Request: fold
Amino acid sequence: MTDATAPVPDPMTPRGTSSWAARRKVLGEFWFTFRQNRGAVVGLVIFAILVLMAIFAPLIAPYSYEQQFRSNFLTPPAWEEGGVPQFLLGTDAVGRDMLSRLIYGAQYSLLIGVVVVSLSLLGGVLLGLIAGYFGGKTDVVIMRVMDVILSFPSIILALVLVAILGPGLVNAMIAIAIVLQPHFARLTRAAVKVEKAKDYVTSAKVAGAGHLRQIFVTILPNTFSPLIVQATLSFSTAVLEAAALGFLTVGAQPPTPEWGTMLADAREFMLSAWWVVTFPGLAILITVFAVNLVGDGLRDALDPRLKRS
Amino acid sequence: MLRFLVSRLALIVPTFFGITVVAFLFPRLLRGDPVLLLAGERGVTPERYEQLVHQFGFDRPLVIQYLDYVWGLLGGDFGTSIATKNPVLYDFFSLFPATLELSFFAIAFAIIIGIPAGIIAAVRRGSLFDQAAMGVALVGYSMPIFWWGLLLVVVFSGMLGWTPIDGRINVRYFFDSVTGFMTIDALISGQRGAFSDAVRHLILPTIVLGTIPLAVIARQTRSAMLEVLGEDYVRTARAKGLPPRRVIGIHALRNALIPVVTTIGLQTGLLMGGAILTEHVFSWPGIGKWLLDSISSRDYPVVQGSLIIIALIVMLVNLLVDVLYGLINPGIRHRG
Reply:
């Protein structure tokens, strides 16, 4: 809402901190706190590497993710007996290069994280804003529906939704987004209720701001901190749940190199070829771990009350 | 306390009806004819179809169908499994002990390691132990447990041969189920080696299902402990010259455990989700595998019934946690 070229401070902004410089100062302070958390920085670096890996997958990956080498079924990693340098992390049961599939797999995990978080954030925030701002019956109905969603373990509800929508990556993402959005709705609603009672909202109302302006311009920006932390948490949950659905064979379908789906394919060979189950899971773990490290750092930097002393 | 309990229960009622709506709508939202899906029959003649439509009440308005469904549920009619022809509730009760036994061991595992680890990490804040423990806890918290299970099987069953790959007990042993808890039944049977075999079957699933609760409990114990250790009364106790063991063990721990109890309860509720994956990996014949199998074999009455039952279990556990929290935390109890 703050325009870099705006000559006059926006009267709708709380405490009148609207200028570019002030915004930069806040960001600077945030970065200062965040940077002190070594784990968070490590997480950010790992995450950046994953993003680069996903973007440049066609350039980095030695082979395509579906190219089969019919003379190399279940070749062990290069350093093992029987391994060849051509396939650094070995090949799977149909002779596809593990490393290439893992690199391409990063695209899917990150896509899942981004899409699911965007969908659940959008849906949850909208519902939370409506519930919190209007209150009354609207509030009751929305929040009871959220309660129902939350009363199922998320993976179970996602499974059932996928059974209705049909298996596949897109439907799995929709299902997970539906399951995750109540958290955003609850957070937003709570934040809106707190903010709504504050003076700056009342003054904006007196100044003649309409419902939409009140909701989106006055209140929403002040609910960002908890939402960002929740979004990070949801990102890692989304990656995990999508992989779980893939593992249960209702998520992404073969030959998609989604890590969970790869695990499902590899399961029958796990006792004879350890590498086909080890690496995809390790990739999931590293991704989720990195995001959680960043999440911890964000929480400490954005919300002093939650700080892990 | 009573008012607190009543307000909690008042919240549960609409949620329960919401859950029944989800279960009721489920087969009606699937692609395909819900009548045939629920009957699970093939080659149905038109006459038989008419009969089924009438039997399931599809010839009546949707609202009436729903009320009928809920009325049945309240009377304990959760439908009949297509696969086993048993009432869903009957199958549930025969499978639930397996999940309960596994969950019990998993939570015990998480508590026994998680709480001491959290306490030590807090007391020796910043030490190597603290950093290592919290690092490991974050790894555990990020764990894709289905993979963790496969990995443990590869190492401990495949490479080392220490633990069985799946199931609850070796087929060598056979005895009647008395309690449904394999470890207890094995003891009752008095067969040599049966008990230790049942325990060996439990080790890996317990670790897998307990990993995330363990990580969460350790992290929560540490932060609760740190908060309490900074309080004035702890400093007073120290200043009085009480031995550190007493200050930490009694003064600090008692208060720090209040939020930890809540965490343990919430994790217990979350176990049902983890149980699905764990039971799938280890072919553990509990309700997680039951639900999964019923989805893939299109046994929709079971899906409906188990959905409601699982959601009810989660809700009851959460209610129990709330009540327990109210009991141990006077601040909540008196606010009502």
Residues 35-64+93-306 of chain A form a domain with the MetI-like fold fold (CATH 1.10.3720.10). The first helix of chain A runs from residue 20 to 36. The interface with chain B takes residues 39, 144-145, 147-148, 151-156, 159-160, 163-164, 166, 236, 240, 243-244, 247-248, 260, 263, 267, 270-271, 274, 277-278, 280-281, 284-285, 288-289, 291-293, 296, 308-309 of chain A (CB under 8 Å).
